[in-house]
Design brief:
10 helices, six-stranded mixed beta sheet, nine-stranded mixed beta sheet, 17 strands
Length: 368
């Protein structure tokens, strides 16, 4: 207990120091003593538009504030940033001197996490590796997508798909031991030139290109997300004929359903196929959900695959204290019907589902 307490104090002190240094650097930048990382824009297409999602099918007015972050937002224009003589960390953080390139982050709020102390740690602890100066490198992974299925699909793949026609001009940077789903999607894009690097080094690159995000992480550009969905569905031919699918997180370390045994008994009676995606290839996962009419799952990366069904109704179980409706936002971009149920959090971020409410929602979904 004492060690955890002191660890929290230590981490908070680091946070305060980072905020202090960032404030100092921002002040010096305003005075002109420090220059932000210079960049050029290779191409820009002004396709900005406003998104306004409809609420879920079983929306309750009292829950309206929970949806605010994802309901209305504006997308970004499509462009490539070119930065020269910069460094890239193993988590996709781009830096030069003691400045972080904010446009390579999924949101500017993360600048405070990758300021002076982080960059100093890279210089002091990590080994610098300089890449060939005559090659063009493309960075599409970041602090989330390097190890997260959802963020790879809706952040990184959305950026790759916009530049599909010129990807063969680049060497694509990848994290150490890239996950199977990452390699599967790159194979579908017929990408051959890749460069992986481990957590003990940082890269120095003369010519780095970074595609712009189509929206802040957790928000999506509907047009681009539709391209990704159509690309995946078109290129994965295998399919199974499961009408009803329940995706379990029982093999995960956290955010499981604590009373899932009861839930499974209920859905099995209704004809649901119980699946666990751990260990499956992208093609296997997509083939299971492709023709589904109803998909039920708890909040987590497994909800991502619902995007690749032809026309499923999605029922998501979420925690009631820190509800994250990023999946609702993504599914809304594709006009899916969506149900939700807020659940009590128990144990290590596990969900305790109200069984009677679950039955009522399921009854509405199946029109029983």
């Amino acid at each position: 207990m004492k060690s955890r307490f002191f660890l929290r104090i230590y981490l908070k002190l680091l946070k305060v120091l980072d905020i202090f240094f960032i404030s100092v650097f921002n002040f010096l930048e305003k005075l002109g003593f420090i220059k932000p990382i210079a960049y050029k824009e290779f191409f820009s297409k002004n396709d900005i538009f406003k998104v306004n999602h409809a609420y879920p099918v079983n929306f309750k007015e009292s829950d309206a504030p929970l949806f605010d972050e994802w309901k209305q937002y504006s997308t970004f224009e499509n462009k490539l940033y070119i930065v020269n003589n910069v460094n890239v960390s193993s988590k996709g953080i781009v830096f030069k001197g003691f400045q972080c390139f904010v446009s390579a982050l999924p949101h500017p709020v993360f600048k405070v996490d990758f300021g002076f102390l982080f960059i100093m740690g890279q210089y002091l602890i990590k080994k610098k590796v300089t890449l060939k100066s005559d090659e063009k490198y493309l960075l599409v992974f970041d602090l989330w997508s390097y190890a997260n299925y959802f963020h790879w699909m809706v952040d990184s793949l959305c950026r790759l798909i916009e530049w599909e026609k010129i990807l063969n001009e680049y060497t694509i940077l990848l994290p150490e031991n890239p996950p199977r789903y990452m390699l599967d999607t790159l194979n579908l894009l017929n990408i051959k030139n890749t460069k992986t690097f481990d957590k003990n080094i940082y890269l120095h690159i003369k010519n780095l290109h970074i595609p712009n995000y189509s929206a802040w992480s957790g928000q999506q550009n509907p047009l681009v997300l539709k391209k990704v969905r159509n690309f995946i569905i078109t290129n994965i031919k295998d399919e199974m004929n499961f009408d009803y699918v329940y995706i379990s997180r029982s093999a995960a370390k956290n955010r499981r359903v604590s009373n899932e045994v009861e839930l499974i008994k209920i859905v099995e009676v209704k004809g649901f196929k119980i699946v666990r995606f751990e260990g499956m290839s992208l093609a296997e996962q997509v083939s299971i959900v492709k023709n589904a009419k109803v998909i039920i799952t708890s909040h987590g990366a497994n909800v991502t695959n619902a995007l690749f069904s032809v026309n499923a109704l999605v029922f998501e179980l979420l925690r009631n204290d820190k509800s994250n409706f990023c999946y609702w936002s993504a599914l809304s971009c594709l006009n899916f019907e969506y149900f939700y149920q807020l659940c009590i959090v128990v144990g290590h971020d596990d969900l305790l589902v109200d069984i009677e409410l679950f039955k009522l929602n399921l009854q509405k979904i199946l029109n029983d």
